Amino acid sequence: MNMLFSILIFINFFILYSYSIVSQILPSVSIFEESPISTIVVDLRPIFQTLNVHPNQAALLHSQPSQPFEYINGYIRLKSRLDREDYVQKRLCIGGGNNFQCNFTLTLTVNLNQTPYNYILSQPISCHDINDMIPKFSQIESKIFMAENVPIGHRIPLEIAIDLDSLSYGIDNYHLESMNDNEQYQFSIVYDNHSRELELIVKEKLDREINEKYLFKLMAIDRGQPPNIGIQTLIIEILDINDSRPRFELSIYNITVAENTIPEYLLKIHAIDNDIDSNAELIYILENNYDNLFYLDNSTGILKLNQAFDYELHKFYQLNVQVHDNGINPLSDTCIIYIYVLDQNDHAPSIQMKFNPIFEYNQDGNMAYVKESFDINLPIAFVTVYDQDSDDRGKAQLTIEPHNLFNLELIRPNYYAIKSINNFDRETLSYYKIELRARDFGQPSINGQITYTIIPKSSYFFITSNDGILSTNTSFDYEIRRIYKFQVCAHDHGQPSLESYVNIQINIININEYSPKFEKDNYEYSIYENRTIIKYIGQVKAYDQDYKDLISYTLGNYEDLFIIDNDGKISTKFIFDRELQDEYKLTVIATDNSTFGSTIVTIKILY
């Protein structure tokens, strides 16, 4: 009886509890992503009418901030932007058979007017995808480097794009489109939809010298209608191999250059190599330079002269030039340069003069001593004029100044005698300066007069412009500066003027102008009496400001008792007795073989 009562109570309790809460799953509804906010998803009022309740008696359960839906007056509607891809990535919606589905379930509680008093409604909502995502590459530009000798059929993996839309709108295929002006058939792509692998394929032989860069648009196309297209710029740069030989623009160059001129440069040869980088770095080599007469810049191909041509020595030159690139296996080419030298009136007449041997004259032979009683019918001097040029350029005319005091007598071609017009009178004029000028008949004529200048100008030396005598009015100090260097320029007065340079080095000769000086005026040392012979006592030191002067030392007294060596070290060769003499004053002399200095060395004898 008690067991039956308990079972009845349990059954009754179960029946009362089961009728207190009732739930219902409603049919699923759907909405497209990106629908306008406030779009009504489902109207629940018909259900509320069957339950005989007012819409205000219903409310959402567990509404999250990220929930894009709201319940208002019997309607479930969209309250915020619904981006399917965003909800899928953040896992804020429930996936179905694949990760691209996005489903929501809204739960409402309804307060009934009678038992069971509480009613639960579950509303499934499915978010439908739209084709709103454009396939996207990780970078807008991709660069590929490829050697020009890769084989046909060579494959290179390419990056694929990402499309966050569902599979129905996912990437369908890829397309490669040339961005160059002309069509390019060297490359193609292949895409495997199953493995999702994208590869670039070389279809034809590449040649960097023809085309060193290819530009393509790599397009990822999805399945939408119309499709969305993601684009990446694909740059293919072709790497060089040393397959192009350098070529000179000309195989033979012909140039003409006047002698005695040094132009800025003779010629700039140029070779072309269609390779790039080190494979196109060209090195020019001059195979014969005629004892450094020519200089070729190895990198620029500029040919220069180191010194002017002399038509009388060479009228023609042939140069052989090679060019090679800087590749691992260098390629080369050769050319020939023919240089023709034009003759110029480049030799000024040369004048040689000798005084009549009856005169006394200086060592240079440019000044003679003539007696007042000299017979003016006799020649004062003889002059020879010669010119290395030929024809009219080698013929010369000689003039003399002052022409009112002296004249020229032609003895034979290019050989003259100088005679005085008037008798000499020392009281009237004690010296005469004669100037000789030789002029040839070339075009242009070259004057034999020469002017001398110091290059650069010197504050220590000067030169007379007409005779080239070099002088100075400065006293020099060998210890301060020993050598002076400069150039002397000699130029004639032809048109154009010709010039020549000579390097001058003046060596200052050292004279012994400083006497040796001791470091001390007085030295003092001591030695014990009755000590062994040959005992070192002390050292004196002198110095000389003259350059490399050698100093030697001698004793001025007591040479029989003391010894001094070339280093100024003083020793004794005697055993001293203090009772006999307790102090010695030595005179030490330092000499540089011409001057001397002295000092006193006091040596005290100790017990």
Q: If you had to describe this structure to a student in words, what would you say it looks like?
A:
- The protein is mostly beta strands.
- It folds into six domains: 19-128, Sandwich (Immunoglobulin-like); 141-239, Immunoglobulin-like, CATH 2.60.40.60; 251-342, Cadherins (Immunoglobulin-like, Sandwich); 350-440, Cadherins (Immunoglobulin-like), CATH 2.60.40; 450-507, Sandwich (Immunoglobulin-like), CATH 2.60.40; 517-606, Immunoglobulin-like.
- Helices cover 5% and strands 43% of the residues.
- The protein is built from three helices and 46 strands.
- The strands form 15 sheets. Strands 1, 2, 4, 7 and 8 form a five-stranded mixed sheet that branches. A four-stranded mixed sheet has the order 9-15-14-11, with no helix packed on it. Strands 17-24-23-20 form a four-stranded mixed sheet, with no helix packed on it.
- Strand 21 and strand 22 (302-305) form a beta hairpin.
- The longest helix is centred in the N-terminal third of the chain and has 17 residues, at 2-18.
- It is elongated and about 165 Å long.
- The termini are far apart.
Concise account of the structure shown:
With 607 residues, this protein is mostly beta strands.
Q: Layout of helices and strands, plus pairs?
A:
Layout: H1 2-18, E1 21-25, E2 29-32, E3 40-43, H2 45-51, E4 58-61, E5 69-72, E6 75-78, H3 84-89, E7 102-111, E8 118-128, E9 141-147, E10 155-158, E11 171-178, E12 187-192, E13 197-202, E14 213-222, E15 229-239, E16 247-248, E17 252-258, E18 267-268, E19 271-272, E20 282-286, E21 294-296, E22 302-305, E23 316-325, E24 332-342, E25 350-355, E26 360-361, E27 368-369, E28 381-386, E29 396-401, E30 406-412, E31 415-420, E32 435-440, E33 450-455, E34 461-463, E35 470-472, E36 483-492, E37 499-507, E38 517-518, E39 522-528, E40 535-539, E41 542-543, E42 552-555, E43 562-564, E44 569-572, E45 583-591, E46 596-606
